[in-house]
Automatic annotation (TrEMBL):
Signal peptide: none annotated. Residues 226-394 form the Pseudouridine synthase RsuA/RluA-like domain. PANTHER family: MITOCHONDRIAL RNA PSEUDOURIDINE SYNTHASE, PSEUDOURIDINE SYNTHASE RSUA_RLUA-LIKE DOMAIN-CONTAINING PROTEIN. One of its GO terms (biological process) is enzyme-directed rRNA pseudouridine synthesis. It comes from Aristolochia fimbriata (White veined hardy Dutchman's pipe vine). GO terms for molecular function: pseudouridine synthase activity; RNA binding. This is Pseudouridine synthase RsuA/RluA-like domain-containing protein.
Amino acid sequence: MVTLTIFCSAIANPLVASLGTLKHRSIASSVAVVRSYATSVSLKRRYKSRLRSSSCSSRPIVCRTSSSALVSDVTERFPNGYPEYTRLLPCPSENMPPRIEHLVVSEGGPVLDYICRSLGLPSLFVADLIQFGAVYYALVCPEPPPTATPEQVRIFKEVTAPSVLKSRASIKGKTVREAQKTFRITHPDEFVEPGTYLRVHVHPKRFPRCYQIDWRSRIIAVTESYVVLDKPAGTSVGGTTDNIEESCHTFATRALGLTTPLKTTHQIDNCTEGCVVLARTKEYCSIFHGKIREKQVKKLYLALAAAPVPVGIISHFMRPVNLAPRLVSKDFVKGWHLCQLEVLECKEVPWPSTSTEQSYGIEDCSWHNKDVAFECKINLLTGRTHQIRAQFAAIGAPIVGDSMYMPASMAEMAEPSVNPFGEFREHYDSDDQRTNATEEWVLKHGKEPNAAIGLQACQISWDDGKCVYKAGEPWWRR
């Protein structure tokens, strides 16, 4: 058996688990499975212990695995529906350490059986992983990175040799690049032939907030073509690379009793709450995407800023790098994207109480003045990722609870020259100096919030105001 593995550290962004990650990960061979941790000898014992000790939601939730026989077996043995090793469903109280396994199938058979044997995981756990969308396959193993050892390269060449590929009927008519394209496994009984590449996200990113929400009460409108949802903070609209189960479109579909899954038309950050449109058909999904492209969709936001914000249009240029944090500059930078928002009003309000912050999981970022905050109404003119958060932080008024951008804003207040794109930036004699300064500036930012921040998509409208929907009260007013 050929086994491919990576050594994972804390994942700071979703791109680590993208389809192209293998090109930046090492490949190793072994007859036995190699674990994704340096202390691999004792992992199995520790792993089972961690699973047994993980606490779950107190409310029983039926696990919709692909095999009804598996579910009934668990229910019979454990009256409350929980197996002794703790299922992925319901959700544990915290995320497990990131772990991704890469395998090349040595003998054909059902994918669930092969993963269980290779990784020593319980079948019910693997069934849940497949339901989560956490298992991917490709007909041909992706190419190893430049840092691969000669032995690793030899293994790759062995399983992708033309003579080997020629004997596989499933690859006929495809180029190697086409055969390396990765797809989700959707059923535990799906057959995988020898030579198939598998990527298993053993510890998916979890969203426990999904199990705490009365989803039916969050539905704003239901039409024949779409559903408008008041998205709770701490949830993902359409899921992540390793978890499409714990998502707004999945839970909203179930809350409404729909037989056809709702479809994502646009995104807002996990830590943001408010209006989201979910399509009921593929046709309307395409229609709504067209409205967004043609700038027919208008969005209003409420932001709870830590400092006053001037009324009017605020413009920045955002670095075209698809990684958080998003860096912005007040001055034009060639190749950077224009970001514009209009602050319609800004009023002073009390800073949320400690109990309110605790109730919604607001992170304490050690802001110097927590007597008052400033509620701003914003007309979003361009729709860049993290735009409001990055722009407000850049003007010294970060969003309350934004553990990613508030630390950098505070660092710039203490030392204005630390921001290489700020008003008081230093002069750089070379591109290397600027690059180093940029890397240091990125490190001044914190981590992505786990729960809510002071940001709500309070209204969405399209077709010249013919369709207008509003969210409920933001969390800081409740």
